[in-house]
Amino acid sequence: MSPLQRRIITNQDATRIIRLSPEEFLFSRTVLGEEYTIYCGEAQLIGAIGRACTDNPVGVYFLTGHGELTQEDCSLLALQLRSNGFEVHSGEIARIAPAATDILLLLAPRSDLTGDEAQTLAAFLDNGGRVLVACGADTPLSRLTQLQAVCSLYGLGFQSGWVVESAAESDRYVDAPEYLSPVVAADYEITGRILLPRASALITPALRPGVTVTTLLTTSDRAVLHPDASGNALDSQAGDVSGQFLLGAMAKKSSGTALCLLASSDMLRDSAAISGASVLDASDNLALLTDLVTDMADIDQTASLDAGVKRLPAQRITFDSESSRQRVTILALTLIPGVLLLTMAVVLLKRRRL
Question: Does the pLDDT at position 318 exceed 50?
Fold first, then answer.
């Protein structure tokens, strides 16, 4: 392995090797047929240093086996999580062994959990585990009875249908009614708008003793829930229901258990687009998801290493040739990481002396 691909971080307990390949410093995406690249070297290095300086880094698992969205479908979210010090994995619920402090992501499943999987998920939550579930209007909720049963244990569930809201009704300037821009009701530092494409709604059955549910996202009181997710968003349907709808909620127990439900899965998907732009680029969705996962992980921010780089940059880089891309990559892997690592070493030495 080239020296440029290896960074050695030493703390007072052990020496750990964090390997970063050149591809991890430049992240390429294609939106509506146009490819662009962002430089994320600083964020990647800080995430790696954070993991090396933590005795037990929090793992985030993209669950598979039910037609869910994968790491590849949500690659920008996975990159954002790694950059914030989380270890990102994938696997079937029956084949992984997460710690109670780890977080499971179940995003837009197409088929239900088996009885054994539902029991495993319920036991994980009972033992202090953390789970985030996202299902939208196109998720076959009527088939997900086992999943709904697990969520109902914590006073939450999904309601079938399609929630729409025009800009004229919501006063939040979304130019397409199928892309909700909800009110962020919880105390999260979100300065931009949140976009939820193709959203369903959440319901709150009877609460389980010892569980508290916090509202995260809501519509205005003038939204509409269509029972049928097909057709035109603003056309009336038989059985339409108007009012305010819950789009995001977090259930917690004092033991550390956290179950977060979001009423849109496309809000996390790389390929979701609005008005010719990526939903993730046009919103603060990634910032919200990072804050939610950090909240669920119950990370003590005062004890973590913070060098000020927590968000991925939004600047797009276009290369006129592969050779120019390689030159930028070499520069990114030598000069910039070297300066950053020197800064981090000074920070760590100062912390040891305190």
Answer: no
Q: Write down the CATH superfamily of domain 58-299.
A: Class I glutamine amidotransferase (GATase) domain (3.40.50.880)
* Tokens read off for 268: 């996390």
Closest to 235 (Cα-Cα) out of 219, 245, 246, 224:
224
Report d(CA 173, CA 242) in Å as an integer.
19
Sequence-separated (6 or more) residues with CB below 8 Å from residue 246: 201, 202, 203, 204, 215, 217, 218, 263
In this prediction, residues 20-46 reach a mean pLDDT of 66
SS3 track for the chain? CCHHHEEEEECCCCEEEEECCHHHCEEEEEECCEEEEEECHHHHHHHHHHHHCCCCCCEEEEEECCCCCCCCCCHHHHHHHHHCCCEEEEEECCCCCCCCCCEEEEECCCCCCCHHHHHHHHHHHHCCCEEEEECECCCCHHHCHHHHHHHHCCCCEEEEEEEECCHHHHCCCCCCCCEECCEECCCCCCCCCCCEECEEEEECCCCCCCCEEEEEEECCCCEEEECCCCCCCCCCCCCCEEECCEEEEEEECCCCCEEEEECCCHHHCCCCEECCEECCCCCCHHHHHHHHHHHHHCCCHHHCCCCCCCCCCCCCECCCCHHHHHHHHHHHHHHHHHHHHHHHHHHHHHHHHC
**Residue with token string 């973590």:** 304
Residue with tokens 């698992």: 61
Q: What pLDDT was estimated at residue 244? A: 94
- The boundaries of every CATH 3.40.50.880 domain in the chain are 58-299
Residues 200 and 137 sit within 8 Å (Cβ to Cβ): yes
Average pLDDT of the segment spanning 260-280: 86
Cα angle at 133 between 127 and 139, to 5 degrees? 145
- pTM of this structure: 0.77
